[in-house]
């Protein structure tokens, strides 16, 4: 899968082991790196969503259209489809198998929002 970032600073952090560990600590930094490698290795979002340890889930309300994965409670890696027109399945849900490009928005604890 192709990955873009909300900003250059976020991309620099998420693509550097040293910066990840400095910003998020050793355990969470390594978890974020693992998720990044899993995303890069997946052919599409459907493949990635089948990995049970990620706790992949779509977000709702003011974050509708975004998805999140666990990177160590309570933090989540939040991203959205990018560069593609979303296709829907027969039941009206987004066809994750057609999403091959994402934009990472942030690493955040959004539970207090």
What secondary-structure arrangement, pairings included, does this model have?
Layout: E1 2-5, H1 8-14, H2 17-24, H3 26-41, H4 45-49, E2 57-58, E3 67-70, E4 76-81, E5 101-108
Parallel strand pairs: 1-5
Antiparallel strand pairs: 2-3, 3-4, 4-5
Oligomerization state: single chain
Q: How helical, in percent, are the residues?
A: 25-40%
**Spatial gap, N to C terminus:** 29 Å
Low-pLDDT windows of residues: none
Secondary structure category: alpha+beta
Tally of helical segments = 4
Q: How do the SSEs run, as a string of H and E?
A: EHHHHEEEE
The percentage of residues in β strands lies in 15-25%
Instruction: Please count the beta strands (DSSP E, at least 2 residues each).
Output: 5
User: Using only CA atoms, what is the Rg?
Assistant: 14 Å
Main sheet record: 5 strands, mixed
Shape: globular
Mean pLDDT: 94
What spatial order of strands do you see in the largest sheet?
1-5-4-3-2
Summarize the structure.
This protein is α+β, with helices and mostly antiparallel strands and 113 residues long. 32% of the residues lie in helices and 21% in strands.
Description of the structure:
With 113 residues, the protein is α+β, with helices and mostly antiparallel strands. 32% of the residues lie in helices and 21% in strands. It has 4 helices and 5 strands, in the order βααααββββ. A 5-stranded mixed beta sheet has the order 1-5-4-3-2. Helix 2 packs across helix 3. It is globular and about 45 Å long. The N and C termini lie far apart (29 Å). The model has no long low-confidence stretch (mean pLDDT 94).
């Amino acid at each position: 899968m192709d990955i873009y970032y909300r900003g250059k600073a976020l991309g620099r952090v998420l693509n550097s082991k040293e910066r990840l560990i400095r910003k998020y600590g050793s355990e969470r930094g390594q978890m974020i790196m693992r998720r990044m490698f899993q995303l890069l290795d997946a052919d599409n979002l459907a493949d990635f969503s089948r990995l049970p340890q990620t706790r992949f889930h779509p977000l709702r309300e003011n974050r509708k259209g975004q998805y999140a994965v666990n990177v160590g409670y309570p933090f989540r890696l939040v991203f959205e489809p990018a560069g593609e027109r979303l296709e829907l399945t027969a039941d009206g849900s987004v066809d994750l198998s057609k999403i091959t490009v994402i934009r990472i928005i942030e690493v955040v604890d959004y539970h207090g929002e």
